Amino acid sequence: MTARMLVDGVASVQVSALDRGLAYGDGLFESIRLIGTIAPLWSRHMRRLAEGCARLYIPAPDPAQLWREALEVSCGMAASVLRITVTRGIGERGYGLPAAPRPTRVVAAFAPPPVAAGVYAQGVRMRVCNIRLAEQPLLAGLKHLNRLEQVLARAEWNDPAIAEGVLLDSHGRVISATMANLFAVVDGELLTPALDRCGVAGVARAEVLAACPQVRVGELTLAALRGAGEVFLSSSVRGILPVRSLDDGSYAPGATTRRLQQHWCDLGFSMEQGE
Amino acid sequence: MTARMLVDGVASVQVSALDRGLAYGDGLFESIRLIGTIAPLWSRHMRRLAEGCARLYIPAPDPAQLWREALEVSCGMAASVLRITVTRGIGERGYGLPAAPRPTRVVAAFAPPPVAAGVYAQGVRMRVCNIRLAEQPLLAGLKHLNRLEQVLARAEWNDPAIAEGVLLDSHGRVISATMANLFAVVDGELLTPALDRCGVAGVARAEVLAACPQVRVGELTLAALRGAGEVFLSSSVRGILPVRSLDDGSYAPGATTRRLQQHWCDLGFSMEQGE
């Protein structure tokens, strides 16, 4: 994996081994799709990052500075994925917050992940994961660095034909995919799970909610998901992905999915549809 | 904070910014008390680390190599605390496990944390934290790098007279302190919480369980804790700490606490009692 990277504004590929991001996962990140020098969802990413910093008591970085660094690391790339990581920085040993925190910021640009041919047209295959997400309202919604549940979920399968897994909470409610949010049309109504107890409130999900004011945010059971007429995933990196199957059940990409894919094109993400 | 450190066996104070330990908290750690060149609980630490690696599918480091590195970083220190961090290493972007993982290992030695005068004799003051630990059986017991709950718990208070906080799970059961395990004598029986849904199964706790076969591992309610005759904390770094108060209630250090403090002395931790 090659990446161009700035650590606290300086070209570097390393961070302190005493950083609390490493010691405790004490920080946040954003994965941001760039088309040349355009990041259509930038302001939503910055809003989520600021909210996450506030909830974790980490001084928020300056978005203008992050944008300058984003342009620097992605310079010359026709398309890229930025990863911005913000940690609480180096701290004394122990969990207590440093009296004078100096957050660490890492801005890195990567080549976009490959998306298999036909995925945007026909959709991805999914399975239901065995792991159940733990419910922690104080961290729910945040894109924080404590992601072992997602690592364990993704380790459950290695069939390359399966692109994603459905994550349930400990009560069996559908929450999301491992790296995307999930929407389903159930009895004609567009639904996405509430994320106040677990899950990551994706920036692409926020864009869908803004584009479709009729979406109901609430409880989605696995039975309702299996019986849905249309299912799709939203991802700031991959856009709108139809779901073609869940275990043995299948779906056809429907009108809502196509309308949102078109919305994504209109935002400037047109390259994604053609990959 | 100064520390002597080896990263993958090489003197360094940095790790790759692409390490999954930073990206996802994808790893484990051990905090180990050394008295000169003796680590009385070393084999328990190595056992827990191996178990954690197995549960997270991380190739386990060689304990003999870790021990050589521990002696190197702590050389010349009369007393020290080692932190051994093992991560899944550098990975491709995304949660999927690398096909050929190369774990990262960081071995660092620090001066032991100061312990206030009289603490071992009279005990520490505690409060009950507001945060409730989320229940994730697949991670329960492990000393993994996803520690945001502990960071948020410790951020709840800054009164230096309060040394520790009681953590409850989402059902209100007592689990532990923020950086120690907890034992209580309730109706004459020595009890410590079960840690199969959340919490860290401390190495010092394991030593207490081995030394006191009569300990019952089970459910401890907050009401039972408040009414306990004797409460103490176990920590691989701090040893056996009597608890003198919880919110407005108080305890006197009792015979069990004193017997276990003596056991800690017998193990070779005698310096701790005198700090």
UniProtKB/TrEMBL annotation, chains A, B:
- Keyword annotations for this protein? Folate biosynthesis, Lyase, Pyridoxal phosphate
CDD domains cross-referenced by the UniProt entry: ADCL_like
Class of the enzyme per the UniProt entry, highest EC level: lyase
Function per UniProt: Involved in the biosynthesis of p-aminobenzoate (PABA), a precursor of tetrahydrofolate. Converts 4-amino-4-deoxychorismate into 4-aminobenzoate (PABA) and pyruvate.
Describe its partners and assembly state.
Homodimer.
Which Gene3D superfamilies does the record associate with it? 3.30.470.10, D-amino Acid Aminotransferase, subunit A, domain 2
Give the species.
Rhodanobacter thiooxydans
Return the similarity comment.
Answer: Belongs to the class-IV pyridoxal-phosphate-dependent aminotransferase family.
What is the protein's given name?
Aminodeoxychorismate lyase
Q: Which GO terms describe its cellular component?
A: cytosol
| Reaction(s) the record says it catalyses | 4-amino-4-deoxychorismate = 4-aminobenzoate + pyruvate + H(+)
Q: What is its EC number?
A: 4.1.3.38
Which cofactor does the UniProt annotation name? pyridoxal 5'-phosphate
Q: Does the keyword Lyase apply?
A: yes
MF annotations from Gene Ontology? 4-amino-4-deoxychorismate lyase activity; pyridoxal phosphate binding
UniProt pathway: Cofactor biosynthesis; tetrahydrofolate biosynthesis; 4-aminobenzoate from chorismate: step 2/2
On the tree of life, the source organism's domain of life is Bacteria
